[in-house]
Amino acid sequence: MEDKTPVTRKSTESFNTSSKILSRESWKIFQIMAEFVEGFERLEQIHPSVSIFGSARTPVGHPYYVMAEQIARLLSDAGFSVVSGGGPGIMEAVNKGAQAGKGPSVGLNIQLPHEQSGNPYQDISLSFRHFFARKVMFVKYASAYVVLPGGFGTLDELMEIMTLIQTGKSRRIPVILVHAPFWQGLLAWFRDTLVPEGTISAEDLDLITVLDDAQDVLRAIFQYYEHRGFEPSIEEEQTQLNL
User: Fold this and answer.
1) Phi and psi (nearest 5°) for 142?
2) DSSP result, 40-82
């Protein structure tokens, strides 16, 4: 039976609008691909590396800023590439400390409407429009995660790596929280609420180490890799390919 439904101006305009949106979305795929390709090509040679996170709002001279700079300098002098989000606050401290050391200072910048602006202490600087592409770069080449006090963005990165390790989508690496007083409330909630509710296992808490001293952070990372080396195993390489 022939469809007699008339094609109205309104339906034509709706179709044209949908087509334009689909076209933009299709081209967006190439933009996303370009971010991944550039990230893979420029970061392939930075390992071993350590990704460090913390608040963009921490002012220069604050104890957290000073601690981040010290940790980054120690890691850089020890031969690590040091990776931050490339912005101000603790990210700036990380890049500043790393650049003063022997290893590369890497910034994975994100384009935001406000708050984020690149700091001047980056030897390797990449810029991302998409958080998910940037997150892959933080994880893919990292031999450790070091997390200083921060807000939603910092917590997001922490939960990301915890989820990837817990689910076997990423190899296990040291996840170190710095400054125990800041983290004690969150860890207590994990222990006293999430574990009894059965939403995580008690063993999941073993993925986290809490430290307060810059030298202890460096020591913990080296101790973790003491008997296996920093290069991922064949199985771990395959896992990282599927991030």
Assistant:
1) -85, 135
2) HHHHTT--SEEEEE--TTPPTTSHHHHHHHHHHHHHHHTT-EE
**Contact at 8 Å (CB) between 174 and 221?**
yes
Which CATH number goes with the domain that contains 107? 3.40.50.450
Within a domain: 6: no
Query: What DSSP assignment string belongs to 194-233?
Result: IHHHTSS-GGGGGGEEEE--HHHHHHHHHHHHTTT-SSPP
Domain residue limits at 206: 13-241
Residue 8 placed within a domain: no
In a domain, 1, yes or no: no
The pLDDT tens digits of the residues spanning 26-56 come to 788 888 999 999 999 999 889 899 999 999 9
The pLDDT tens digits of the residues spanning 123-144 come to: 999 999 999 999 999 999 999 9
Residue 2 lies in a domain: no
How many domains in the chain? 1
188: left (phi over 0), alpha (psi -120 to 50) or beta: alpha
* pLDDT for position 5: 53
